[in-house]
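During the no-cost extension, the postdoctoral fellow (Dr. R.K.) reprocessed legacy sequence entries with the updated structure-token encoder. One reprocessed record is reproduced below for audit purposes.
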Amino acid sequence: MTATISTAITSAPTAAASAPRPTTRRAVARTIAVATLVAAAAVELLVALVKSAGAEVAIQGKPLGFGGCTIALLMCMVPAVAVIAGVRRWAAHPTRAWVRITVALTAVSFVPDLTVSSTSTGSRLTLMTAHLVAAAIIVPLVARRLPTSR
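Re-encoded structure tokens follow.
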């Protein structure tokens, strides 16, 4: 009896799973905008929390001011929009391509944090965490709006 009930529950389609996801340009653009705003707020909050704990967040000895992460995030989103347009246009599996590309780019984004001189370990860890937080917000939200295949 229990096996029958659990099979029925796990095999029943959910409303979210059965509803087609909108993949129009407008839906993707709206998702990019919302994801970017949420990620910008999250990374600024992260840096503010680190600073409020008494740690200095500085790059090459210069303190990172309020909005610094937001500006960097916006600069990264410009080529990200081009990547999104490209995978929507040319990738056989846009969602998979987007996730693979962004995972690789997130890993590459650690290189400056690890190689820039005169940056403390705490600042490096804060910046790398900010990269992960932004990616954890933006990548899955955008992926949900991309078509799984063409």
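The longest strand covers residues 58-59. The two ends are 42 Å apart (CA to CA). The remaining legacy entries will be reprocessed before the final report is submitted.
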